[in-house]
Amino acid sequence: MDETEWQRMHQAMGGGAGWGGQPGHHPATPPQPPISPAHHPAAPPQPPVPPGHGWPGSPPAQPGPQPGPHPPLPQSGPPGHPLHPAHAVHPVPEATGHIPLPPAVAGTGGAVLAVLLIGPAGAGKTTVARHWASTRPVPTAHVSLDDVREWVCSGFADPQAGWNEHSEAQYRLARRTCGFAARNYLANGISCILDDAVFPDRPVVGLGGWKRHVGPALLPVVLLPGLEIVLERNAARSGNRRLSDEEVARIHGRMAGWYGSGLPIIDNSHLNVEGTARALDEALARALA
Question: What's the rounded Cα separation, in Å, for the pair 156 and 147?
Fold first, then answer.
């Protein structure tokens, strides 16, 4: 085979660049199988093209708003973990229009109070007031008008012997003394409860006078059981605190004028001392609220 024939055969076999002009030195590279799309390697992400460096012929890129610094992500687990940010559960704001209600009344607690317990003779004012004061979780004093009035030994004006200017004057003096004691207790952070048969048809002398003696924050509560209960309890009394049935009925009838006055009224006809004291504390808590 001459040189010209050999060159024609070499060109027919795809020779040329890379052969070096010598037969047998550079064998042809074997054909490679095609790569399927599933195994094709992903192209690496391309950096954004800065403005003014787009492809030839494309419009210049417009600068957009620059993003601000991102807040740091909370601590989370790896991807797929329930704590990963992609799986975070964000709270949904309440959209039902729910209005929270105030908590239920749970008594007066540790409030410093000035209380006036009103009621007819035989209503149990003194007993209930003493029990309420002794069972509160904070210091509380009970000032009984009858006890203070009976401090007068010589010259005591007993209303049972006939109501006159002397007995009226001693009642006024006892009320002022109780008011002075109540203010001193309150000034030292000690609650105070007083009891008196205050009539609604004498507002200036009765409830108005007590508020002048103690202060405008005085909380009045009326204790008014039925007439039969009052007569029964009065009959169990002794000494100058026991009144006639006629006097008890008259006082009870005048006390009925407190209905419609807006003051809290407790009918303790079927309540014991403990139950009445609880009802008193609940009535005071509602008045405070």
Answer: 12
CA proximity to 279, closest of 225, 199, 208, 218: 225
Q: In this predicted model, what pLDDT tens digit does every residue of 183-220 receive, in sequence order?
A: 999 999 999 999 999 989 887 678 899 999 999 899 99
Q: d(Cα 44, Cα 42) in Å, to the nearest integer? A: 6
Contact 251, 121 (CB under 8 A): yes
Coarse DSSP helix, strand, coil percentages of the chain, rounded to the nearest 5 percent: 35, 10, 55
Q: How many CA atoms lie within 13 A of 29 on its CB side?
A: 5
The C-alpha atoms of residue 175 and residue 151 are separated, in whole angstroms, by: 12
What pairs with residue 195 in β-bridges? 117, 144
Cα gap 108→150, rounded to integer Å: 31
Q: The tokens of 79 are what? A: 């991807």
CA–CA separation, 121 and 256 (whole Å)? 13
pTM over 0.85: no
Task: Domain ranges for the chain, please list them.
Answer: 114-288
DSSP codes of every residue in 147-190:
HHHTT--TT---GGG---HHHHHHHHHHHHHHHHHHHHHHHTT-
What residues contact 156, with CB distance under 8 A and at least 6 apart? Answer: 150, 170
Q: Which residues contact 255 (CB under 8 A, 6 or more apart)?
A: 118, 119, 120, 197, 199, 200, 222, 224
Does domain 114-288 fall under CATH 3.40.50.300? My reply is: yes
Tokens representing residue 289 in the block: 């609220």
Phi/psi of residue 115, nearest 5 degrees: -120, 140
Q: Is 218 left (phi over 0), alpha (psi -120 to 50) or beta?
A: beta
For residue range 82-102, list pLDDT tens digits in order: 555 555 545 554 555 556 655
